[in-house]
Amino acid sequence: MLEKEGYMTAIARSGFQPKLWTPGDWNALFGFGTNILVNLLVLTGLLQFVLKMPSDIVFGRILPALGLMMFLSTGYYAYLAWKLARETGRDDVCALPSGISVPHMFVVTFVIMLPIASMTGDPIKGWEAGLVWVFFQSFILMAGGFIAPWIRRITPRAALLGTLAGVSIAFISMRPALEIFLTPAIGLVCLAIILVSWFGGVRYPKGIPAGLVAIAFGMVIAWGAAVFGLDVGGMSLAKLGAAFSNFGFSLPVPAFNHVFSGFDYLGIILVTAIPFGIYDLVEAMDNVESAEAAGDHYPTTRVLTADGVVSLIGCLMGNPFINAVYIGHPGWKAMGGRIGYSAATGLIVIALCWFGIIALLLALVPIVAISPILLYIGMLIGAQAFQTTPTSHAPAIVLAVTPHLAAWAKVQIDGALGAAGTNAAAVGIDKMANMGVLYHGLELMGGGAILSGLVLGAIAVFIIEKQFLNAAGFAAAGAVLTYFGLMHGEAIGVGKGLGVTPSISLAYAMVAGFLWLCARQLAVESATKTMTTEPRAKLEPAE
């Protein structure tokens, strides 16, 4: 190993220059680029149709600022990959994927911006509140970057990747999977096109990337059906014509006055900004761990600091969506992605956002044709948690996934009840329990799922390894985090919060005590065994 490292160092010193573009970058560009495109299309739809944001704000202020943020982010991570490749002499280094944080995209929309926009009757006020939310999250990320490496050292890989698998299965895979079966003529066939290439190794004519083949097939089917007056994919000439009205060149403009105006809603904002800032911290660590499992080591502090800095820049220019390192590095690396795909994605995003092209794409490409790519990434990350950890840790991974399943189920129930004009409290928690829907259990287990999954997974790993003292430490950490509402809840509080009771914190403390006793007992048994198995000293004859 030392000889290999010395050899790589010698190569780096000899002036090894990594290639900025490889044939595999085309595959990763279309795969990752379509992933980013989906997020941009969904985000634009939320701004236009949910928040009712004026078009001049969406296409003239928010998207240009978002484009700048993503350009800085993808460019920086391409540089880190180039630097790592040059230092190690390797030609297989893959840049970290990054972009808009998908969970936060929905959280800031439905938890921050929409309630404030509805309360004030002004979507601009909701936008300003979203800017302040990102403002605080950015500083949490920058500060957290200095403690993240320590957290990575003490946390088992199965816990980090297990909670990441939970996010991947529940919040990345499920929605696109459902969309695929809602429009199977496009979705299911596009999924097959992607799987036979990226899992089965099938090459399409002239090396055309599978993602591009899938999108082209989806567009042909959707627009072919539209010609005959059929709605398969939601395409229409009327929507396409209306999209051209948003064309135009818009540069990002400072939005300092809007950021400061949003401080009027600081109380509402901090309730979620701090817990989700910690979520960002753990999510970024998980994704850096995922990249390391795939062979690329990146410094966690630099990654978190970069996310915080570019998010702050985007916020000050008018973007209410935070930047994050994405799940999926192993997938893009497996496709052949190296350095260039990341920087190229940033350039494309700038063009899409600064020229108003997103509106046109929203009317041109059926979303269901892109959904299989997200499902593929979810499948890959879920599998990685099991493939890169000891098989004995598999139960811990399953345990780490369960809080995310609870959180996903709660979101589905809340959405269904909201569509009916009611909520769980109005229906009655007890009535729901009598029908087999343990809503309060979902609420408690799913609150702060990223931290809950990590803590539960770590406890399980250390129990499996009979390292009971370490397990007790994580149980104690769970007690503290729960007590302050960062786990098993939706708000910060002291011993209480929305849906949080001190009994969960007390239960974690009791578990910590029990595991500490187990550690003491194991130490006693080990000492006793050592004493009874030591050979007795032979008596030497007297001289």
Task: Walk me through this protein's architecture.
This protein has 543 residues and is mainly alpha-helical. It has two domains: 15-109 and 151-252 and 322-388; 394-524, no CATH class. 73% of the residues lie in helices and 1% in strands. It has 24 helices and two strands. The protein has helices at 2-13, 23-50, 55-88, 102-120, 123-144, 148-154, 157-182, 184-198, 210-227, 237-243, 256-261, 266-293, 300-316, 329-335, 340-354, 357-364, 371-387, 394-419, 424-427, 429-434, 439-446, 449-464, 468-483, 502-533; strands at 98-100, 323-325. The chain has a two-stranded antiparallel sheet. The chain is globular and about 85 Å long. The N and C termini lie far apart (54 Å). Residues 1-5 and 495-499 have low confidence and may be disordered.
Key features of this structure:
mainly alpha, disordered N terminus, 2 domains, two-stranded antiparallel sheet, 1% strand, globular
As residue ranges, the low-confidence spans are 1-5, 495-499
Strand/helix succession: HHHEHHHHHHHHHHEHHHHHHHHHHH
Query: What is the strand arrangement across the widest sheet?
Result: 1-2
What is the averaged pLDDT score?
Answer: 85
Percent range for helical residues?
Answer: over 70%
Q: Could you say which overall geometry the principal axes of the C-alpha atoms support? A: globular
The computed structural class is: mainly alpha
